[in-house]
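User:
Hi there, any thoughts?
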Amino acid sequence: MTTRADRRPIGVFDSGVGGLTVLSELRRRLPHEATVYLGDNGRAPYGPRAAEDVRAFTAECIAWLLAQDVKLLVVACNTATAQALPLVREQSDVPVVGVVRPGAVAAAAATRDGHVGVVATSGTVASGAYPAAITEANPAIVVSQQACPTLVPLVEAGVVDGPQAEREVRGYLEPMLAQDPRIDALLLGCTHYPLLRATIERVVGRSVAVVDSAFTTAIAVEDLLDALRARSDLTGSGAADNRIATTGDMAAFTAVAERVFGDRLPDVESVSVEAAVSSKA
């Protein structure tokens, strides 16, 4: 039996630039799949916001992506995944993949001594989503969490290395590691944090495995596309269409995005998600 190829794009959503780390891995692993990325930089960061605001903003962004005729949604924002994933699944008529479960499974697999540290936004930490997901994967694991409220604004401003970045990272990680010296796996529970990975690895040292959800999320998307028989049929000669949009300052967004994609970065679009919601209503 032949299956009709689905050339519709994969929609990827984040509160800002952080989800570009997930998008980069998706494009590396699935080069023939079209993508549409939306960063809600105009309202970032989501982490300190009330849960009802996160859910409302997420619903608007998802409505915009659904209007782009996507075949699958990736919520590449840990705060939105932790606080709004059930809402997104209810709102969406296409499959939805979040980043919490893939990251939790990767962290559970990475620890040797059964002690995992999680660094995330205040909203993600308050939700308890990562301890629940990690202990679901392995109930014997001890999980320590640390909220890092200054790191997302730092990344959004393009400060991903240097003395200021190291000072902020050390201020969060050193007390957590001192409180539980047995932590041997550190889960980056925010998709912005991989942009600080070099600094984080320098601070924690070689004895701690640093894990993020980008790779495992891309695998989850690939597996789901295969299960649904929803792959694009573009070959190596076909060019997948990749769009990137932001609700915020285009110059600031582009400056950080270029660190991830270099000259492979497509033109960045400026969009209004409120207009998309109004037109859908």
Summary: The chain has a mean pLDDT of 93. The first helix runs from residue 20 to 29. The radius of gyration is 18 Å.
